[in-house]
Design brief:
Blueprint: H1 9-12, H2 26-35, E1 46-51, E2 59-62, H3 64-70, H4 74-77, H5 93-103, E3 108-115, E4 121-133, E5 136-145, H6 147-161, H7 171-182, E6 189-196, H8 199-206, H9 208-223, E7 229-232, E8 237-242, H10 250-261, E9 265-267, E10 270-272, E11 276-283, H11 289-305, E12 312-313, H12 316-337, E13 341-350, E14 356-367, E15 371-373, H13 379-384, H14 388-407, E16 415-419, H15 422-426, H16 430-441, E17 448-453, H17 462-474, E18 477-483, H18 490-495, E19 500-503, H19 505-509, H20 515-531, E20 534-538, H21 543-551, E21 556-558, H22 568-581, E22 595-597, E23 600-602
Parallel strand pairs: 11-12, 14-16, 16-17, 17-18, 18-19, 19-20, 20-21
Antiparallel strand pairs: 1-2, 1-5, 3-4, 4-5, 6-8, 6-11, 7-8, 9-10, 13-14, 13-21, 14-15, 22-23
Helix pairs in contact: 8-9, 11-12, 14-16, 16-17
Amino acid sequence: MKDFKEAELPKFIKLVPKPLGNCVNSGSDSLLRSILPTLVEDFSDGVAIGRISAGSGPLIYVNTAFERLTGYARHETLGKDCRYLQGNEREQPEVARIAAAIRAAEPVDVTLRNYRKDGSAFWNSLSLRPFTIGDELLYLAILRDVSATRQTEIALDRAANLDVATGCLNRQAFIVAAERRFATRAGPVMIVKLDVIGFHDINAGYGFDVGDALLMETGRRLRETGAALVARIGANEFALAFEPAHEASGPPIVAEVCAALAPDFVVPGANVSLRFAVGYALGQPNGNAISLIRNAGAALHAAKSAPLSGPRQFQSEDEDEARNRVQLTRELRAALANDQFFHHFQPQIDLVTGEWVGAEALMRWNHPLFGVLPPGRFIAAAERIGLLLDLGERGLAAVAAFARKINKYRERPLRFSVNVSATEFLHRDMAEIVDRVIRRAGVEPAWLTLEITESMFLNDSPGVLAAMHQLRDLGVGLSVDDFGTGYSNLRLLEVFPVTEIKIDRSFVAELAASHSKMVIVRAIIDLGRALGTAVVAEGVETEAQRALLAGMGCPIGQGYLFSPPEDSESFAAKLRLASSDGQMNRATKDDRFRAKTAFGFLLPVQLPRDADR
């Protein structure tokens, strides 16, 4: 079989088969028969010739390949306008291109969807070439079935531009489509971004198949909101683009989006009510849709910080905060590389004797511009960008080295507490890390205690319990930080091998004024004593607080009454002063204590009557 598209038109137009039909006038009929070759019947591509007449294009010749390709016999085709192959899809952009080319008597090449006689669709690579015979304008059409190639192209295009799980646009395709669509738009544009809150828990609790089904249903609902563009741009994050008539209609559109997502999601294996954080930006694109997309992202980040506040419209401070986060990320990476992190140490004091028994190590960042920054300014950012694990291990090693220096010549060594986040504990072998740090620093395991918040103890999986038991087997202490403020559960004291409870400063601050706080503190102290667990009261700032705690039997206190957190040199200097100036307290006859320490005299304790209730 010959391929028509490999033949040259002058070689082809020599002769025509006689059965041209009755639609050809006698002048052109005889001339066509003299110039069209009989070989056209052997070409593998479909060939057709049509006459352009009064806006119509009746076919005057088709070859055998055309019949085979379309399913229409020659006698069913001749005299018909070739547009009948388009079926009901005459709104394809390629149809307009064909019409424009015919009006201008110009060649055109398009690929469009056509339909066979049996109704099946195929992709037609169509080439049209005008030619004249005398004063008559004719068109030569070459048709080729490229369905297999086109399907491959469509599949590749979907893979490149669509999210497989939801059928929505992917991130890059959304950006490209938004830029193209809004490049010349004169009216306002609104970009909405939303995030499924707690989606990780859904995957963990129901499984990834349910999670994928929920994402698919979310995408389906969003596509029905009337958005011009819908995309999945992250694991559980979506973006929509709207073209509101005016900016005042933006918030109602966002409300409609939220309403579409409000009903329960019923998927195989689960009936779930999802919550979404929503941020949006509204304005004139001015040929730059990227700025609106970025602003919507900043608004979403603010919305996730306060998910109960509802949808958040972009505000100028959101952009400032986004820039600050980017700047902070860059500075944190540089700080870790340049060893700008260090520790302040706050002593823990025996409330009866005044002796220094330990210290809490509090990480600080020596920022080159803003000076010393507390952990609240950078720990969350370090966790978000994946630096917390490295930062935590380096910090633990630094504290261990300092503990070795302090305890080298002490008869009674100090115990140093280090804060450990749930991220550090859950995403690495904590026991192996601590063991390596201890061996490298040459310290006793008992010199170190890991402080973990109460929320960490909610995870009582076998892996977490095993890790904690491994740490205790090493000899390292485990402390429950801020006890009583989070998810207090007496079961954690039974299940987890904790060695210390820290009473939160909020209880200590109101101890003298609140009977209920005093009852709670006394209960925690008694509980620790009964379980053989050390108890440390945080935030001791007045002598009255110290006296009350000591009278209730709290063994250890920590706070500004004794010393603020200070750098290592100042801490070591105060420790030397306390060791030389403060001796072990001696009991008086009535079993109340009075001792001189580096912080002055510890006064006798006289509890108020209602403290015993």
